[in-house]
Design goal:
Elements: E1 7-12, H1 16-27, E2 32-38, H2 41-50, E3 55-58, H3 67-77, E4 82-86, H4 93-102, E5 106-109, H5 116-134, E6 170-175, H6 179-188, E7 197-201, H7 208-218, E8 222-225, E9 236-239, E10 245-251, E11 254-260, H8 272-283, E12 287-291, H9 300-308, E13 312-316, H10 326-332, E14 338-340, H11 342-352
Parallel strand pairs: 1-2, 1-3, 3-4, 4-5, 6-7, 6-12, 7-9, 8-9, 12-13, 13-14
Antiparallel strand pairs: 10-11
Main location: cytoplasm
Active site: 176, 202, 298
Domain CheB-type methylesterase: 164-356
Length: 363
């Protein structure tokens, strides 16, 4: 018997081309098996009566029943990991974010066949998202993967030099699978005087602007998608735009962000490692690094660099993670000073607003 059976996937999308393309992408991975496809939720329900998959890849806009309604019914009757696959254009973004609130594990963008690079990166993103979903806790890669780049591909390690003095605090957060809802939990607990926050959440292009807008409506602090040159200010969270890396920079005692293109780092763009390394270089001991739910090891090395530079570091604990991958890898490297429950992360960030507070001390 195979000790590691393949994860079985059902694809639900009204486009035959999309069904075929995603089937080919997933079937190319040695750990994934497509057990069937359906062109709408009713056909999917018939399939589910015969065989239950490990993951469902679900479109939103379909005839007869939309994907969000189907998702809510699934979660109410028999929860299963669901990955939303959509183009996410225009005002539809609100609907897709509602799908996350309804219980979807992750969002992926429909593959674009127009360029080879886009298709290759879509393949990585889709395979990784489905594999991560298969390992997700629910609440009531390619067969020959490409070379895995580190943050060196975007930002060179800095020589140890004296850093200009500043007392300005900054918080850097990295998350992946399950992070959209986890970030909402954290940010909604913050007051308007919270320290400045920079965030990398693994999401594809066109998703992050709507995600930031939704959080901005729900939170006391200001939340928006970052643009290069933005000031990093108290009471504000900047989220890296999908498809681009984000770095923290310093101008005197003031922080800004730089947004740039570059290769995938740890199979992601934006990469948590890139953000964390830049934070270590720009903020040193004045930073707090937070690594949250997600599959893989993006962020582990960068968080260790932050801790080595004197920053305080925390990781989300296993019990509150949807996927305990990134925090576990960071813990193994010695990057995490203290693991805490998701519900404690917001209050710890708020404590950082008080200069000199020991945010890692157990209360």
């Amino acid at each position: 018997m195979n000790p590691h059976p393949k994860k079985r996937v059902l694809i639900v999308d009204d486009s035959a081309v999309v069904r075929q393309t995603i089937s080919e992408i997933l079937s190319a991975h040695p750990q994934l098996e497509v057990i069937g496809t359906a062109n709408d939720p009713f056909q999917a329900a018939e399939r589910l009566r015969k065989e239950w998959p490990d993951v469902i890849v679900l479109d939103v806009e379909m005839p007869r029943m939309d994907g969000v309604t189907f998702l809510r019914r699934l979660m109410a009757q028999k929860p299963v990991p669901v990955v939303i696959c959509s183009t996410l254009v225009g005002e539809g973004s609100r609907t897709h974010l509602a799908a996350l609130e309804a219980g979807a594990v992750d969002l992926i963008q429909k593959p674009n066949l127009s360029t080879r690079r886009f298709l290759e990166e879509s393949t990585i993103r889709i395979q990784d998202a489905v594999l991560a979903a298969a390992h997700a806790r629910l609440r009531r890669g390619p067969a020959t993967p490409p070379a895995k780049l580190t943050a060196d591909a975007v930002l060179a390690p800095a020589a140890r030099t004296a850093m200009a003095q500043t007392t300005h605090k900054v918080v850097a957060i990295g998350a992946s699978t399950g992070g959209t809802e986890a970030l909402r939990t954290v940010l909604q607990l913050l007051r308007h005087d919270a320290p400045p926050i920079v965030i990398v959440q693994h999401m594809p292009e066109a998703f992050t602007r709507g995600f930031a807008k939704r959080l901005d409506e729900l939170c006391q602090i200001s939340v928006r998608e970052a643009q290069s040159g933005d000031s990093v200010l108290p009471g504000q969270a900047l989220i890296a735009p999908g498809g681009r890396h984000m770095m923290l920079t310093r101008s005197g005692a003031n922080y800004r962000v730089e947004v740039r293109d570059g290769p995938l780092v740890n199979r992601h763009r934006p990469s948590v490692d890139v953000l964390f390394r830049s934070t270590a270089q720009a903020a040193g001991a004045n930073a707090l690094g937070v690594i949250m739910t997600g599959m893989g090891d993006d962020g582990a090395r960068g968080l260790k660099e932050m801790r080595d530079a004197g920053a305080r570091t925390i990781g989300q604990n296993e019990a509150s993670c949807v996927v305990y991958g990134m925090p576990a890898e960071a813990l193994k490297t010695g990057a995490v000073e203290r693991e805490v429950h998701l519900s404690d992360i917001g209050p710890l960030i708020q404590r950082l607003a008080a200069s000199g507070a020991d945010i890692t001390k157990k209360t």
